[in-house]
Amino acid sequence: MATLQNKTIVIVGGSSGIGFAVALASLQSSAKTVIIASSNEARVHDAVARLKSHNLPGEVHGDVVDATNSEAVKAFAGRIGTVDHIVWTSGDIPPKSGLNEFPFSKVETPDEGQAAFTVRFWGPIVLAKHAKFHPGGSLTLTSGTNGLRPMPGSHLMAGMITGLDGLTRGLAVDLAPVRVNLISPGLIITEIMDKLMGENKDTVLKAYGEKIPLKRVGEPSEIAEAYLFLMKCGYITGQRIDIEGGILLV
After folding, report:
1. Dihedral pair phi/psi, residue 16, rounded to 5°
2. For 104, phi and psi rounded to 5 degrees?
């Protein structure tokens, strides 16, 4: 079975949630070096310490990068040097405009709506243009099932997420032979749920889980396996993998 032995893995958004799970899984799969990056220095330092506490082989490093700043992303690409695999899980979720309202549901102008694209869409584009990869390298982006099964009021986010499908295929052509793929997670229990749902989190997760064929929401460690697959499988590019417990079936 393929491992990540002697590989350098970079996870933008690796200080928490799915990104942290990918970082840990990479170390468990014998990665030589794992670099996690986030915009918050304190969270980066904490995540590095948590990863090192597992006492796994492999080096762990942290970096602070503002994914909303193109020049900062360019500089980050220069600092990490030539790498094997880059995973982008970072995403900025703004406060909702009101109770039970989806983020960006009240956007009326392009200037207001641009914020939905800054981190999740433009950030990966800038990094892809400036990153350097060893032979066999890959870039894996992250979207979500809202593009395929939109929630009420989520039209802008659904449009951005759907756009990531086209971006993935386009980058797969332009960056070849570097492989570019996309993971589309369903509802995964991460720290961001607290920000999105607040005190309603447990109630919402339980109700949503009952609708899923697998009768539960997902864990970060489960979805991390999909990212590892895309890093290790050398003959897949331009593809999207939905990891959503079957919610798209109902």
Report:
1. -160, 175
2. 70, 10
Residue 10 contacts residue 44 (beta carbons within 8 Å): no
Cis check for the bond before 177: say yes or no (omega within 30 of 0).
yes
CA distance 141 to 113: 21
pTM over cut 0.90: yes
Give strand ranges (E) for 89-169.
Answer: 132-142
Strand order across the 179-185 sheet: 59-64, 33-38, 8-12, 82-88, 132-142, 179-185, 240-243
Residue 42: pLDDT above 70? yes
Q: Radius of gyration of the chain from Cα atoms?
A: 17
Rounded Cα–Cα distance for residues 35 and 58 (Å): 11
Cβ atoms 162, 227 nearer than 8 A: no
What pLDDT, in 10s, does the model give residues 205-245? 888 899 999 999 999 999 999 999 999 999 999 999 999 99
> Packing angle between helix 17-28 and helix 41-52, nearest 10 degrees?
30
Query: DSSP secondary-structure letter at 124?
Result: H
pLDDT in tens, 44-65: 999 999 999 999 999 999 999 9
